[in-house]
Amino acid sequence: MADLQNDLHTPGEVGELDDLSLDPPIPAEPYALVADPEADLLDRAHALLAAHPVADGYSGLPWALRHLPWYDLELGEIAVDTDVPRMRQGHVGALFCSLHLPEGLAADRAVAATLEQLDLVRTVIVNHPEGLRLARTAGQVVDARNCGRTAVLLGPATAAALDDSVSLLRVLHALGLRILTLAGTSWASEAGLTRFGEEVVREMNRLGVLADLSGASERTTERVLAASKAPVLCTRSGARGLRPHPANLPDDVLAGLGKERGLCLVPLTAEQTGPTVRDVADHLDHVRTVAGPGCVGLSGTYDAGCAHPQELTDASCYPHLVAELLRRGWSETDLALLTWGNVQRVLRTADVTARAAQERREPSTARIAELDG
């Protein structure tokens, strides 16, 4: 019997049973954690944008929504590039809604079509109160952000919507217009500003309507920079030195814009800035170098019928661009100016300029026939 017990419990068998385990062996040293630099940059981008959200200088959403029978921007709308969930994901704190008109629209329809788009935007805001809020001033933009809404500003609108009438400018401003594109009219043409055009700019300064010079001729641009008491914008302009698109700006114009404390809003489009996020970053680098960090901003140009660079396909993608700029060594200060601070500065300056001008100047009653006839 003792022999049988010895056979069942030999030291060798006990050792073999001790080595059998359902758990993997514990290594002598713990596994080293491998850091992911790309994820770290993206986390930093989200954190920065949470404090300094994007003021998007151009959205074609109004015209895009005209063709949809039904939509819900708060729930999410796949038929467009911009909705409330994607703006929150992309940290969009302010959105300039373009009232531009499609090419080929009859000139006598410009006023009515602009008013229809303006009414549409106001209706969209009313129907999406949890995500959107109409804003006219820099202070109202900040208030909307503090309430967790995206501030929606009206403009740019095409100058043809004025129908050569300063009175219509005041009507549009009373309805909320903040930006007017000075191109495509007899008084802001390849030859520059006429006397009536200069009067329009003065009245824009008095009202607080910002001048948009994207697409304007060089002579018009030079004259507006000299005549305007408020900063001017280029809502969709990259660097012509990097990509020879007609709406992009040459270095001398960029330098002049920087000198006058204007703002170049670089578009996120494949045609103007290139097919990749790195191409867009190249334009931002160039504009910052030539015009200064206080004169560069962002223009998503979503829902405007444009192709967009890789990783920047809709309004949720801004963190990818900021991550690329962090990789290039942009400081938090310069990034805060790019995304939010520069637009706020231009809006505040236009508001202050308007209050001062209203104390000195009565509303203009000038007619184009009187000044340019």
From TrEMBL:
InterPro entries: Metal_Hydrolase (IPR032466), Pept_M19 (IPR008257). It holds the Pfam family Peptidase_M19. Coiled coil: none annotated. It comes from the Bacteria. GO terms for molecular function: metallodipeptidase activity. PROSITE patterns: RENAL_DIPEPTIDASE_2 (PS51365). One of its GO terms (biological process) is proteolysis. Residues 1-21 are annotated as: Disordered. This is Dipeptidase. The lineage of its organism: Bacteria, Bacillati, Actinomycetota, Actinomycetes, Kitasatosporales.
